Structures are given as structure tokens and as C-alpha cells.
UniProtKB/TrEMBL annotation:
Protein name (Swiss-Prot/TrEMBL): Na+/H+ antiporter NhaC
Domain of life assignment: Bacteria
Keywords: Antiport, Cell membrane, Membrane, Transmembrane, Transmembrane helix, Transport
Pfam families, alphabetized: Na_H_antiporter (PF03553)
Topology term for the membrane: Multi-pass membrane protein
Localisation per UniProt entry: Cell membrane
Keyword check for Transmembrane helix: yes
Family: Belongs to the NhaC Na(+)/H(+) (TC 2.A.35) antiporter family.
InterPro entries in the cross-refs: Na/H_antiport_NhaC (IPR004770), Na/H_Antiport_NhaC-like_C (IPR018461), NhaC_Na-H+_Antiporter (IPR052180)
Organism, scientific name: Nonomuraea turkmeniaca
């Protein structure tokens, strides 16, 4: 609807729309804190199984009431909700594809093979550091933290369980590595978006990102080494894992052929095939490979001995994609590793994301987020304080809006003119928004990224949060650079004009 049409409609109906007040913002934020805090206090880590989802839906309803009270129409609220749902369409299909992939990869032996080989190669003393480094390399190659966590990450957490090392620390290492690679890869959509929002070349953005990302990862790597050496087992006692290795060998034919679906996924991701298509192709391919390499597993899973092998294979793939693979081996660690996946396992996560993003979109569309951020911009007098304001805005939006794209896009849009006015190069802002918005998103349980990581890794967000050393160090280093002036680039008004970005734009 155009502005003129909107104005005429308002005149005809005698309706006036009031901008959100400070009281409106306080009501919404207090509701969020009380309901989320209450659900965590009452249910602990189990809050993510439903109570937090209910809290977010109630928060969205309160936001709707505030918006309606200010004179907005219900059809405008509905349109905002529709925009929220459309914004998470990609995430919905990626999550469903990941659920299908985990189910068929367990059934076909892909994940068990990764675990089988990993147990024999990786030592507990340097396991966490190796996990972070491996995930960093993979994520940088394919440009996706989500895909890295859903594939290599799942296997690494499974190996951790078998080795007797900490699953939450391993999850922290996986996420640290995955987000390092995501930030430094030109294939990453968040990296490209960070550069586009402040109108800088993506490779210039990546070069500036390296000044915070690499030191932050070095800090994380050293901490993971120390944890492994000081608090972890000194060495793998193969006697402790022999029963698990034997069980995996008895259930599956362990062969490098089982890793073909992983190879396919890496190739498709490197060739920039959309994530949903790449994940689903790898899931279906794994099921087909499993028909030939794991016929006994397929027959046992279907549970119909007289069924035609082709029909049995189709039925097994279908069921594994829908409901996941289930196995009762008699060994708790093995059963926890294998009995996972399925699209239906992702439904609580989708419920969480829909509630969070709907709430955040309502706040953005009707001016409540702007009411929150504008005072931060006005209060940021020096460069250091300006950097703190950007960080607080991005991290706060990850908490309030529940979506990393809002946390990335909105601060870049709001602070771009202020950076230009102060003669600060736009690359400073692109680096800062990525450090503050992208990497802190998996630290919030109801954020789309936090919900995803908790679901696919099987470790609650609040359990792995203290060990996401890279995700904590990266934004802190950015803020420190702002106060110290280290690697802070300045531009003259003439340079901005040459780039088509006049001063004060």
C-alpha cells in the first residue's frame, strides 16, 4: 500500500496511528524477560521442549495488543506475521532436510562410520581443539555453519560420547569452528549480507574480519587444548570403547563407501547448490547407498522379513526421513548415537523459531525496535561507545527478535549513517555487525541459530554456551578494537563521495 493510499484510508476512517512510547517498549521487554525467565526457572533445560515456545507465542500476542492499542489495524498485524513466516521459509526447509539427513545417515552407516574411525584416530587430550579446527576447515570450504554442525558436528558429538569426553564442550568446539569458517568464507550468505548491507566488497570485508576472527579462534583453540589436557582423560582407553566399536561393527558394514553421502554434500555445497537441495540430495543418496551396503539394517528397521528388497528399501528411507532411525543394541551410548533424526524431530525447533521470529518482526515493523536502538545511537559519543552500541544492538536483537538476520541487518542499516558522519570506514561496521550479530546468534536458546544447534547436536544451548569461546571472544575483540583504535579505518568525505556514499548518508 502506498503512503498516499494509507493516508487517505486513515483520513476516511478517522484513525490515527501513534508511534510506540517508552511504556510500550517496557511492557513488551518486561513480558519477554518474565515469561522466558519464568519458563527457564520452572523447567530448566527442558524449557526448550515447549514452555519457551509458549512464552514466545504469548510475547507475540502482547506485542500485537500494544500495536493495536496504538491504532494499527489487525490486517496490518496479520501482514507482519505473514512476513515473519515468509522470512523463515528457508530455515524451515533446511531444518526438515537436516532431520531427514540425520535419519538416513544413521540408517545407512554414514554417521556410525565417522564415529567408528574417529574413535580410533582422535585422542581425548586434543579432541576439543581438533574438533574446532576440523569444523573451521569444513565450514570455510562450504560456507555454512548449519551444514557443518548438522554433519561433521553430529559425528563429533557422537564420538565424544563414546570417548567419555564432554558433549557440551565438544558442541562448543563444533560451533566455534563452524562460525569461524562461516565468517571467513565468501560462500557464506551471512558474510555476503554483512558486506552488502554497508556497501563494501565482500573480499575487503573478509580481510577485515580476519583481524578479529583469527585471534578469537586462536584464543578458543588454546582454551580447548587446555581443557583437553588438564581436565580431559589423558589418553583413550580402548577397553572402555571396545564394546561400542564391536557393536557398531556388528550392526553395520563399516566401509569408506558409507562416507560417499558426506562427499556428495561437500561437493554440492562447494558448487553453491542451495542448502535445502544439497541436504535432501545427500539424505536420499545415503538411503540408496544403505540399501546396497546395509541390507540387514534395512530389513531389521522395516521389520517385514517377506517384503520385496526394493520396496523395503523405499519404505526404510521414507520412514528414516520422516521419523528418524531407531536402534536398540543394549548399549546406551550406541543407542543414543543411532536413534536420532527424522523431520518430526525438528518440529519443536520450528515451533520455537516461528514464535521468536514473529515476535521480532512485529517489534521491527511497528517501530518498537527503533524505539530501543535510537537512544543507543544518541548516547554513543566516542568511537568505543559507538562500537559498544552496535554490539549491544546486535546481541540484544538476537535475544529480543530471535533471528540473526534481523540482528545483522538492522544495526547495519541504523548505524551506517553514523559511521559515515564520523569518518569511519564502512568495513569497520561490516566487521562489527558480523562479530556482534552472526556469531552471538547460537548463544540464545530461542534464536533460530541457537535452536538449530541445540536440536542437531543434541546438546541444550545453555549447556554448550560457556564453551563457545570463539563466539564470545570475537565480539569482545571488536569492541576492544573500537576503544583502542587498533585496526580502525577512517575515510575522508571525498573518499565516501567517490564510492557513492556521501557523508551523512
Amino acid at each position: 500500500m502506498s503512503d498516499s493510499t494509507e493516508d487517505n484510508t486513515r483520513e476516511d476512517t478517522g484513525r490515527s496511528v501513534r508511534p510506540p512510547s517508552l511504556a510500550d517498549l517496557v511492557i513488551v521487554l518486561v513480558t519477554l524477560v518474565v515469561l522466558i525467565g519464568g519458563s527457564l526457572a520452572l523447567f530448566g533445560l527442558d524449557a526448550l521442549d515447549g514452555p519457551i515456545q509458549v512464552a514466545l507465542v504469548l510475547c507475540a500476542l502482547v506485542a500485537m495488543l500494544v500495536v493495536l492499542k496504538n491504532g494499527n489495524r489487525w490486517d496490518e498485524v496479520e501482514a507482519s506475521g505473514q512476513r515473519a513466516l515468509s522470512s523463515v521459509t528457508s530455515a524451515v526447509f533446511i531444518l526438515l532436510a537436516v532431520g531427514a539427513l540425520i535419519g538416513t545417515w544413521n540408517m545407512s552407516g554414514t554417521i556410525p562410520t565417522l564415529v567408528y574411525y574417529g574413535i580410533q584416530v582422535l585422542s581425548p587430550g586434543w579432541y576439543y581443539a581438533a574438533a574446532a579446527l576440523l569444523c573451521g576447515i569444513v565450514a570455510m570450504s562450504i560456507g555454512s555453519s548449519w551444514t557443518t554442525a548438522a554433519t561433521i558436528g553430529v559425528g563429533l558429538v557422537g564420538i565424544a560420547t563414546m570417548l567419555g569426553v564432554s558433549a557440551p564442550v565438544t558442541a562448543g568446539a563444533v560451533i566455534s569452528g563452524a562460525y569461524l569458517g562461516d565468517k571467513l568464507s565468501p560462500l557464506s550468505e551471512t558474510t555476503v549480507l554483512s558486506a552488502q548491507m554497508v556497501r563494501v566488497n565482500v573480499y575487503d570485508h573478509i580481510k577485515r574480519q580476519a583481524w578479529t576472527s583469527i585471534p578469537a579462534f586462536v584464543i578458543a583453540f588454546v582454551l580447548f587444548l587446555l581443557i583437553g589436557w588438564v581436565w580431559g582423560p589423558a589418553a583413550t582407553d580402548m577397553g572402555d570403547t571396545a564394546s561400542e566399536l564391536t557393536a557398531l561393527g556388528d550392526i553395520y558394514w563399516i566401509t569408506p563407501l558409507n562416507l560417499l553421502p558426506l562427499l556428495l554434500l561437500i561437493v554440492l555445497s562447494a558448487r553453491r547448490v542451495p542448502a535445502t537441495l544439497a541436504l535432501m540430495a545427500a539424505a536420499i543418496f545415503a538411503g540408496i547407498v544403505g540399501i546396497f551396503t546395509q541390507p540387514a539394517v534395512i530389513r531389521a528397521f522395516v521389520g517385514e522379513p517377506g517384503l520385496n528388497p526394493v520396496v523395503a528399501g523405499i519404505k526404510a528411507i521414507w520412514r528414516a526421513m520422516a521419523n528418524g532411525y531407531v536402534k536398540s543394541s543394549g548399549l546406551a551410548d550406541v543407542d543414543r548415537l543411532l536413534s536420532r533424526g527424522g523431520m518430526d524431530s525438528m518440529l519443536p525447533t520450528l515451533w520455537l523459531i516461528i514464535g521468536a521470529v514473529t515476535f521480532g518482526t512485529l517489534l521491527e515493523d511497528f517501530g518498537l525496535l527503533k524505539r530501543l536502538i535510537d537512544p543507543m545511537v544518541r548516547a554513543a559519543k566516542g568511537t568505543g561507545r559507538l562500537f559498544v552500541a552496535v554490539f549491544a544492538s546486535a546481541f540484544g536483537l538476537n535475544i529480543v527478535a530471535g533471528d540473526q538476520y534481523i540482528a545483522l541487518v538492522l544495526p547495519a542499516r541504523v548505524f551506517r549513517a553514523e559511521f559515515a558522519k564520523r569518518g569511519l570506514a564502512p568495513t569497520n561496521l561490516s566487521r562489527l555487525t558480523a562479530d556482534s550479530g552472526t556469531v552471538t546468534s547460537p548463544l540464545v536458546p530461542w534464536n533460530s541459530c541457537g535452536a538449530f544447534m541445540g536440536a542437531v547436536l543434541g546438546v541444550p544451548t545453555l549447556a554448550y554456551l560457556p564453551f563457545c569461546f570463539f563466539n564470545i571472544a570475537s565480539p569482545l575483540l571488536s569492541v576492544v578494537y573500537g576503544f583502542s583504535g587498533f585496526k580502525i579505518e577512517h575515510v575522508s568525505p571525498e573518499d565516501q563521495a567517490k564510492d557513492g556514499k556521501p557523508r551523512g548518508e
